[in-house]
Amino acid sequence: MAKERGQISPSDFAQLQKYMEYSTQKVSDVLKLFEDGEMAEYLQGDAIGYKGFQEFLKVYLEADNVPNHLSLALFESFKTGHCLEDTVKNDLVCLSDVSCYFSLLEGGRPEDKLEFTFKLYDTDRNGILDSSEVDRIIIQMMRVAEYLDWDVSELRPILQEMMKEIDYDGSGSVSLAEWLRAGATTVPLLVLLGLEMTLKDNGQHMWRPKRFPRPVYCNLCESSIGLGKQGLSCNLCKYVVHDQCAMKALPCEVSTYAKSRKDIGVQSHVWVRGGCESGRCDRCQKKIRIYHSLVGLHCVWCHLEIHDDCLQTMGHECDCGLLRDHILPPSSIYPSVLASGQERKINKASQKTTDDLSLSTFEALRIDPVSNTHPLLVFVNPKSGGKQGERVLWKFQYLLNPRQVFNLLKDGPEPGLRFFRDVPGYRILVCGGDGTVGWILETIDKANLPVVPPVAVLPLGTGNDLARCLRWGGGYEGQNLGKILKDLEMSKVVHMDRWSVEVIPQQTEEKSDPVPFQIINNYFSIGVDASIAHRFHIMREKYPEKFNSRMKNKLWYFEFATSESIFSTCKRLEESLTVEICGKPLDLSNLSLEGIAVLNIPSMHGGSNLWGDTKKPHGDIHGINQALGAAAKVITDPDILKTCVPDLSDKRLEVVGLEGAIEMGQIYTKLKNAGHRLAKCSEITFHTTKTLPMQIDGEPWMQTPCTIKITHKNQMPMLVGPPPRSSNFFGFLC
Ligand SMILES: [Zn+2]
Ligand SMILES: [Zn+2]
Ligand SMILES: [Zn+2]
Ligand SMILES: [Zn+2]
């Protein structure tokens, strides 16, 4: 869309944000100087000229040398055609517009921002917004919409209608209470007034430095980027340039949502020159001569690659290609305000009254997915697995719509969950370690979702027992993500048990470490196993360089497990604790234990199976377990236990006794796979009489004498990967 006069460019905006980051000034401080301080001289009514505006920037950005092109571009942006007649004539801008703009870019609580804007536009300070003041607000909203490239002609009548709705009591003017209520519940006021910056597709490429294994040609100057030389490639559209050509590159074509009603519903191909990596045309199947010049076109959504000449024979409609089941095309995301009036009312009616104002900002965009697809909500922990996490993040941004892909370090899981909340049929993919998965599951618990979506895992880093049990492997090693997404499409749902753990300490002088989690997803243990994990944890913090590969991790475990000193605290564990299984005491008298482990999943510490293999379970595992479980909630009979197979969805836990540190070392290195099977049960209570090492899901701590109660919490739908080609290594899923 052609930009109107007075728009600031993406690079200007980026520069402005840099200045704002470094400045400590607030708009309200600057306004004081205008109102009754040293800068009052610049005021002409509520307006200021360019000189006054420059002073404003100087104070606000705490910079004496704001580049002239930047302040001029900003100044012009406040003088768009919608501004008041006389200010345009006299080359002035309204101070309240300027203040509103900047204050909304500032951080702060939404309710404070709303109140601030109300006061800004209540120019006669009578505590209500009359119709002319409301008109000014609409003008400001139009300016923001223009900046976001929305179709402004559609917007004006909608905004007028909306402002009428805000006047709740029909008095013809808007009170502060009405304004705040509207901002909280009905109208995305903050978005419209203030550049909800996450809504801006700013036309900037997302550059990555890249060396190319074959000759490629610069999208700008079309000459070759030498073999093995470094160029820049846009992560979103695969536009490629020489370093020195980046400044002059055309804007990025990738638009992440529909900005006009006509773009809602049907997705068109978005062609970018070059990027034909396969060298073959998807239309005519003939070769594309990519080695000699910048040729061919590729679509940034379906990733088809075609000859320039084949373009005329292609239809417009884009089906998003092989990964369409996962993709939210831009045509399926659009600003809520562009929804028809009736739809908006339905939307409003379905909203619960909420005190959480920040919610409203996330309803700025609506999702209406392509029918029969399962849009994927991707969470990436870029810190997991070394550089792998970051790579996965930007690969998914290319494969899917960047609005589906969330960086957990930046915003955590909440914004993504809120954005997808009402999307039918969506799935979640968590890219990270078991700890990251636990974090997401906990957030889902708390989010109170109308429908809990199934969760798949792309394991990053080491020791991913949960991912392993769900057949997503122990750690991602650069495999093709497209293929993994295809696997995900075929995956099945299991309802994984989750367990509450309550630790009630006895009153002692001694101090405990804090208990790391209240929920068990994987396993819990007391004694020697936890002690090993504890030392391991401390050593890892101390000597990270020794723990940089999975193999080395195993060796360290072995070393700790076999060293003499560690199991002295846990020796004859059965004398310092008692165990109750579903209310009945468990007899430990014939054992000499150094640890007890409680398993929800059969894999521990990167693939060890403490429960051990069950000899050839014939038939349906669920059936077998149900048959056993129906008769008894608790199984302690050793003969029956021999036939039991772990199942992470049977609402039962497996309890295993660990009889020696040497043995533990063997378990970690897979020389030996099992502990002593004690029970299968649905509830377990421990009483301990001395300080012991414990761990939940691999997080160790030292715990003073206490009572620990483990009970079933809920089940979470998890996606299980396709079965491996070889036979099952152990038990149910692994
Ligand atoms: Zn781009
Ligand atoms: Zn170039
Ligand atoms: Zn396409
Ligand atoms: Zn062709």
TrEMBL record:
- What pathway, per the record? Lipid metabolism; glycerolipid metabolism; Glycerolipid metabolism
Q: Which Pfam families match?
A: C1_1, DAG_kinase_N, DAGK_acc, DAGK_cat, EF-hand_7
Q: What reaction(s) does this enzyme catalyze?
A: 1,2-dihexadecanoyl-sn-glycerol + ATP = 1,2-dihexadecanoyl-sn-glycero-3-phosphate + ADP + H(+); 2-(9Z-octadecenoyl)-glycerol + ATP = 2-(9Z-octadecenoyl)-sn-glycero-3-phosphate + ADP + H(+); 1-O-alkyl-2-acyl-sn-glycerol + ATP = 1-O-alkyl-2-acyl-sn-glycero-3-phosphate + ADP + H(+); 1-O-hexadecyl-2-acetyl-sn-glycerol + ATP = 1-O-hexadecyl-2-acetyl-sn-glycero-3-phosphate + ADP + H(+)
Keyword Zinc-finger in annotation: yes
Name the UniProt key words of this record, in alphabetical order: Acetylation, ATP-binding, Calcium, Cytoplasm, Kinase, Lipid metabolism, Metal-binding, Nucleotide-binding, Repeat, Transferase, Zinc, Zinc-finger
- SUPFAM superfamilies reported for this sequence: Cysteine-rich domain, EF-hand, NAD kinase/diacylglycerol kinase-like
Q: Does the keyword Repeat apply?
A: yes
| Domain annotation Phorbol-ester/DAG-type: ranges | 204-252, 268-318
EF-hand domain sequence ranges: 109-144, 154-189
A GO molecular function assigned to this protein is: ATP binding
Q: What is the annotated signal peptide range for this record?
A: none
Its subunit composition reads: Monomer.
What does the protein in this record do? Diacylglycerol kinase that converts diacylglycerol/DAG into phosphatidic acid/phosphatidate/PA and regulates the respective levels of these two bioactive lipids. Thereby, acts as a central switch between the signaling pathways activated by these second messengers with different cellular targets and opposite effects in numerous biological processes. Also plays an important role in the biosynthesis of complex lipids. Can also phosphorylate 1-alkyl-2-acylglycerol in vitro as efficiently as diacylglycerol provided it contains an arachidonoyl group.
**Name by which UniProt lists this protein:** Diacylglycerol kinase
The beginning of the lineage is:
Eukaryota, Metazoa, Chordata, Craniata, Vertebrata
What gene does the UniProt entry assign to this protein?
Answer: DGKA
